[in-house]
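User: I'm preparing a small set of examples for a lab meeting where we compare how different chains pack in three dimensions. I only have the primary sequence for this one, and I'd like the structure in token form so I can line it up with the others. Please keep the answer compact; I'll paste it straight into my notes.
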Amino acid sequence: MNKQITFLGIKVNALNKEEIVDMLLKFTREGRPRTAFYLNAHCVNIACADQEYLRILNAADLVYTGGQGVVWAARSLDTPLPERVNILDFFDMLIKGLRERKHTLYLLGSEQEIVENAAKALTKKGLKVVGSRNGFFDKLEEKDIIREVNVLKPDILMVGLGVPKQEKWIYSHRNELNVNLCWAVGAAFEWLSGQRKRAPEWMIKCGLEWLHRLYQQPLRLCNRYLFGNIIFIFHVLGRKIKKGGILV
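Assistant: Understood. Below is the structure token output for the 248-residue chain.
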């Protein structure tokens, strides 16, 4: 059953990893374009300031909980979510289903070397990657990319352009693309390619994976995590006050 909650004005699918995998595989078989996005604290902060991005999230076919902070905050607002469902937590499960159904993928985003290495890594896992392209392109190149994707007809287009660029790009072109699923994946290509190392299991379980990312990329992620996490907490506390909740 596809249950939804509303968290700070954003519709989020309250599903666990297995249910997310089932839904993504279902989308690949429906023969019409579907959109799948993730939500973490950084995404929430942007959505609170960017109404266009908020509308796009709420128009998506699937929004899953990519950050532990959202799970904890949703619980505090009495709108619980089952668990965090970061792409790296369920991707191996998804790969099995994609292999069995012989689904194809196109990777769009990140730097050329990274996206090519991600494509090679997925190919080694038994997936068929029909094409890949870096995320640095202008309007003229964009038309060529859409044309190439439509010729190759992948079942899934994975887009890693960063939030909110990737969601806005998908939403504006979803009806031009001959794919079943347009999936925003953020920095996933960096991990799939081996460019970045994931946090130790204990940090993931404690919800501290963001700290490991900050350690790896302090200059790029300092504002997002150190200041962004504080802003996120204020958004949640503000909603609790409006609801008449007791602040602990």
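A couple of notes for your slides: The mean pLDDT is 91. The chain has one domain: 4-192.

User: Perfect, thanks.
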